[in-house]
Design goal:
The structure holds two protein chains of two kinds. Chain A is mainly beta. In chain A, 0% of the residues lie in helices and 49% in strands. Chain A has a single domain, classed as Rieske Iron-sulfur Protein. In chain A, the strands form two sheets. A six-stranded antiparallel beta sheet of chain A has the order 1-9-8-4-3-2, with no helix packed on it. In chain A, strands 5-6-7 form a three-stranded antiparallel beta sheet, with no helix packed on it. In chain A, a hairpin with a 5-residue loop joins strand 3 (24-30) and strand 4. The relative contact order of chain A is 0.25. Chain B is α/β, with parallel strands linked by helices. Chain B has a single domain, classed as TIM Barrel (Alpha-Beta Barrel). In chain B, 40% of the residues lie in helices and 11% in strands. Chain B is built from 14 helices and eight strands. Chain B has helices at 3-15, 41-48, 84-93, 108-111, 116-133, 151-161, 185-193, 217-222, 224-237, 240-243, 259-273, 284-291, 304-314, 344-358; strands at 21-25, 99-102, 141-146, 167-174, 197-202, 249-252, 292-295, 320-321. In chain B, strands 1-2-3-4-5-6-7-8 form an eight-stranded parallel beta sheet, with helices on both faces. Classes of the chains: A mainly beta, B alpha/beta. At the A-B interface, loops of A face helix 1 of B.
Chain lengths: 117, 361
């Protein structure tokens, strides 16, 4: 099912919008590059709304002392325990195969943003 | 446990209504100027005119917005914990709590290494602020007495505010020294005499073996239980519980899975080495069971089976008490922390009865 979220201009780059669709909390995100993503707006750990957290980047390293800043604006960080989720896949960064958030398809048509559940 | 299973189990807990005491809540000053009304003309100048600030001891900073706080706990003005109204709504009302114990976040005056006169004045001002802005506005809130480290000044402060009906404990901040030393025993005597418990909570000065702060926040935080072990060992071997058998100590935010290990290790050592500390009259594990309680936050995501094994190894269901650490980032919710498959009677003890026993509620 296709559900309207908002007008395109109401969701700017780097912004999130939370809404409920058939009682399912969903967060719709426009990344810094302008791409749209949607995830279930509930942290699978303790349940707060992920949209109360922040969009951030993260760091990788191959050696102790190294910091490579990556995925700028594509990490959704929980407002409570700082768990990191990749907005492209919904996968957590610490255990991507076992801990993840459901993702939904998002489209733009006629100046509007839609989520597909 | 997979995500779906966790969610399902959590739904089950959400349906049960249990009484709750939260044993670790951090109310805050909105700024140091909140202390000014409670300071003498002499001391208030250091804040109003001389720009005094507490020392920042750790080299770290949190990798998140909101620093050490839950992102959703910011009031319209001031830091999380500084608004009575938001704390009341977000913690007490939304979680349906019967009591919450305010530990504050003002350990700096307790772990200060000198100038105890000003440290004592700050502690007194903080206690007055706590009483006026929080305790007197909601009977569900209970308080901790912040003290300077100097025992004479500490006893004076305990006697000054210890009879407030909502003050339930004396806060001994865990820093880089051990509180069991006989030098500090007048503090335990005063708390015991006034019918107060002792609470021990980490300060920003909590240091561990291997270098004060172990280079990274994640390392330092992981090692905090080390410092709590030091305190437990210090209290027992210095005979604090032999001098004050009715005194009870709550160890807050120091973990609990290590407790059965230390009970066994100390018992074993005592059998061989009792003569060195002959004033210690009982097996160390007896003091753990009779005089100590441990809070649950930060909850490690362990299974029901492992959790029940730990309780079994403690030999008591009366030693653990729920804590949330509100409004800090690693908050544990009373409805979604304890593993679902543990007996209802044990849940009731951890969420309410054990803390009610510690604080005589």
């Amino acid at each position: 099912m296709k559900h309207p979220v908002c007008m395109e201009e109401e969701l700017q780059s780097g912004e999130m919008k939370s809404l409920k669709i058939d009682r399912i909390p969903v967060v719709v995100i426009r990344s810094k590059e302008g791409e749209l993503f949607a995830l279930r707006d509930v942290c699978p750990h303790k349940g707060p709304a992920l949209s109360d957290g922040s969009l951030d980047g993260t760091c990788t390293a191959n050696e102790p002392g190294e910091y490579n800043f990556v995925k700028d604006g594509e990490i959704l960080k929980c407002p409570w325990h700082s768990w990191e989720f990749d907005i492209r896949t919904g996968c957590s960064l610490f255990d991507p195969h076992n801990v993840r958030v459901k993702t939904y398809e998002v489209t733009e048509e006629d100046g509007k943003v839609f989520v597909h559940l | 446990m997979g995500t779906e299973q966790t969610l399902e189990a959590n739904q089950l807990i959400l349906k049960q209504k249990l009484k709750v005491i939260d044993t670790d809540v951090h109310h805050e000053l909105s700024s140091l100027h909140d202390l000014v009304p409670y300071l003498s003309d002499h001391w208030k100048r250091y804040i109003t005119d001389y720009e005094w600030k507490p020392i920042k001891t750790t080299p770290f900073h949190q990798v998140r917005q909101g620093t050490k706080h839950r992102n959703d706990a910011f009031p319209e003005a001031g830091p999380p914990g500084s608004s009575f109204e938001l704390l009341q709504k977000q913690l007490l009302d939304e979680n349906d709590m019967t009591y919450a114990v305010l530990g504050g976040w003002f350990h700096e005056c307790t772990v200060a290494t000198g100038w105890f006169e000003f440290a004592a004045a700050r502690a007194s001002a903080y206690n007055d602020y706590t009483i006026e802005k929080f305790l007197n506005r909601d009977k569900r809130l209970l308080g901790s007495i912040t003290i300077p480290r100097d025992p004479v000044a500490a006893v004076r402060e305990i006697e000054r505010v210890g009879s407030h009906p909502q003050m339930v404990q004396v806060m001994l901040s865990v820093g880089n020294f051990a509180w069991g030393d006989p030098y500090y025993h007048p503090i335990f005597e005063a708390a015991n005499r006034m019918g107060l418990a002792i609470g021990m909570h980490l300060s920003a000065d909590i240091s561990v073996s291997g270098g004060d702060f172990l280079r990274y926040y994640v390392a330092w935080r992981s090692a905090h239980p080390q410092a709590y072990m030091t305190q437990v060992i210090s209290l027992i071997t210095n005979g604090v519980f032999d001098k004050f058998p009715n005194l009870k100590v709550g160890f807050i935010e120091g973990g609990f899975e290590w407790v059965p290990f230390m009970m066994n290790r100390m018992d074993s050592a005592y059998k061989a080495l009792r003569q060195e500390t002959p004033w210690v009259k009982r097996m160390p594990s007896d003091y753990f069971r009779d005089n100590m309680k441990f809070s649950t936050q930060p909850w490690n995501d362990i299974s029901s089976e492992h959790f029940l094994s730990i309780v079994d190894m403690m030999g008591s269901e009366d030693m653990l008490m729920f804590s949330s650490d509100y409004p800090h980032w690693d908050f544990d919710s009373p409805k979604r922390t304890l593993p679902p498959k543990i007996p209802q009677s044990l849940k009731e003890k951890i969420l309410y009865n054990n803390a009610a026993d510690l604080y005589k509620l």
